[in-house]
Sequence to fold (393 residues):
Amino acid sequence: MPQRAATIVGGGIGGLAAALALHRRGWRVEVLERAPEFTEIGAGISLWPNALRALEALGLADVVRAAGAVETAGGVRDRRGRWLSRTDNAELVRRFGHPLVVLHRADLLRALTEALPADSLRSGSEVSAVRDVANRPVVDHCGGESRPDLVVGADGLRSVLRRALWPDAAGPRYAGYTAWRMVTEPLAEPPREGAATWGRGARFGHTALPGRRMYCFASASLPEGTVFGSSEYGELVRRFGSWPDPVPALLAAVPPDAVLRHDLYDLPPLPSFVRGRLALLGDAAHAMTPNLGQGACQALEDAVTLAHCLDGTQDVAAALHSYDLLRRPRTQAVTRRSARLGAIGQLSWPPAVLLRDVAARLTPTRATLRSMTPVLGWTPPGDRVTASLNGGR
Fold:
């Protein structure tokens, strides 16, 4: 049987994971990345139990755990620093079989690239078009053209492939708030627990990274495209410098030139993630807000599921149809759930904020974890896992 070939457009986490999943099943893969190198400009990333199961299927779970930090406890606080809800990682492991692991996005990307053949990674390769010739896809890029058996569009929120093949689909929609991300320098005494502090129309969160560093993130409800007169760091200090401990100390440990800010978007649902021999994956298919920490987790699930559906069949179109049936309803549900949580977190009307905080304080921790079962209880297709590892309690 001739070796099948796949072209993956986009060299982020989802694209590289898809390439690795297919490579492990004997496919010849190439990853076309328009940037001059495979790297990740970002800060921290949360990998929940469902993502760790996907990484187990890719053979990288141990590598990623070694590069990350396990959050032992955390929760949500109000603007005065009082706990509204707590999360116990031991209970998370008991229910779902894995902890919450946090690491730098660049470390996850490095683990993925190092697991792939070097000659499959083609940076500086911008794609200009995808055509159909004699029922086979042709990918035009600055290095020539590729004629694979399968094309995977993993080129992010503003995907070229999504726009080309679904030209009438709605584009990204602004969530109503902007976000800052940053990593501190090593701290002499880092906080022992992670936390997300909810204010009025603003939030600030922190969680541990290896090396006594902390990954911090913040959000504020602002008009799309807002430009500040001061630096991003100066604006952060102005908005959050008087928040309860440990927020001021964390901000003091952030290099002023290391703050990233992006307006947040998600994508309206598509009627299908596939067309012929092309499949969308990750943000190109279902970009979501980061409120559940599931963006990269869902992309990893996509990659493992795609490879599973293609395994053992020569009918690529039929396999992609199965992939679409498995992934589209799930990821679109997670997208909606993340948007709802973001709307709750960004409430600014004082009576609504009070009601939100009281409801959070009265909700038992076990109920919160149980409500996350549909998200965190995912297992790779075909895996036989006990009900306890599915979170089915």
About this structure: The first strand starts at residue 5 and ends at 9. The two ends are 45 Å apart (CA to CA). Residues 5-69+103-172+266-345 form a domain with the FAD/NAD(P)-binding domain fold (CATH 3.50.50.60). The chain is about 35% helix and 25% strand.
